[in-house]
Structures are given as C-alpha cells and as structure tokens.
Amino acid sequence: MKIVGVGCGPGMLTKEAIQAIASAALIYGSDRAIELAQPHIPPDCIVKTIDDFKALHTLPKEVVVLSTGDPMLAGLGYLDGEVVPGISSLQVAAARLRIPLAQIVPVVAHGTGHEQGMRDTIDALSHKKIVFLLADPKFDILELYKRLQLLGIPLKVVVCENLCYPDERITVGHIGAPPVPVCKLYSLVVGNF
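and the corresponding structure tokens:
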C-alpha cells in the first residue's frame, strides 16, 4: 500500500506523488483528494471514494490511498505502507506568514478531538509557542476564542482559508477581535509573531 499526500490544494503535488498516482491501478481517496489527483490518474485506473475509513487497513497491498495535505499531518499516515509526503496546509501557512516551521506547534482538532485540541492550543500558547490549528467544520472556534481571551496574553490570530485554491483568503486579527472563518476548509495560526 502507498499512502500518497496530494497536497492541500491545486498544484501542491510533488513529483514523487505524481509518479505514484500515474502508475496506480487502484486508487482510494476522499472526493477532494481524488479531485486534486485527477489530472495524473491513468484512464484505466480503478478509482474508489473512501466510504469507510476504518476498513482501509484491509485494502490490497497494491492500492494507492490518497491523503489530502500530508499523510503525517492529520492524514492517513497511520496506515501500514509506504508514505509519500505531500505539501501540507501547515507548510503553506508558514510560508505565507513567513514563520519558520521550527517555531510552530501543530495541533489537530478533528472529529472527537475538539476538546483535546482546545487544551493543546491553550497549553502551547501558555508556553509562548505559535500554534497551527487544523480543525474540522464542527470545531467551536468561538469557544476557543473565549478561552484564549481568558489567558490575558496579547495574541495574533490568523484564519487561513482554502489555501492554494483560487479563492484563498488569509485574515489577520488579534484575540480581542479575532477573525472568523467563512468556509469549511480553514486552519488557524495563533501566537506572538
């Protein structure tokens, strides 16, 4: 099995990822991952949308599984097999904001991990770190903002939406008047930078 990162948006596929996709006979991925990889999928390749993430470990060893962004950042890198890295939203956000990756603590708040994501964010910011928060659309960003205001720390807050897509939007604010995302595909960068 190959777990291939397709990047966080159009144009973010690496050469290695393109080669893995172009030589695949069987591909599984989310609708978004398939869309990002589509120009490189061979016409005779069987492509299936993932409908049960818990069953991915049962797929045949010759399958290519597409993971949006990088498989090792809230992706499918937990699966057994070769991981082909992708360009993540963390990398793109750091580049757009000119923050060295070594200064950033990534926090994932997906699915049932919302409360843990809030705690991890608060903990990192209490230790004067910069946080990159990758959340799903159900994450309660307003609750996070309330908790961060209680810290009494002056914080810059950046909402990064649809990174690498034509409608990419980066909104900068501060914890006293934080920006709120308007789309489902977003991440936050919070800290003193």
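(Above: one complete record from the training split.) The CA atoms of residues 159 and 180 lie 7 Å apart.
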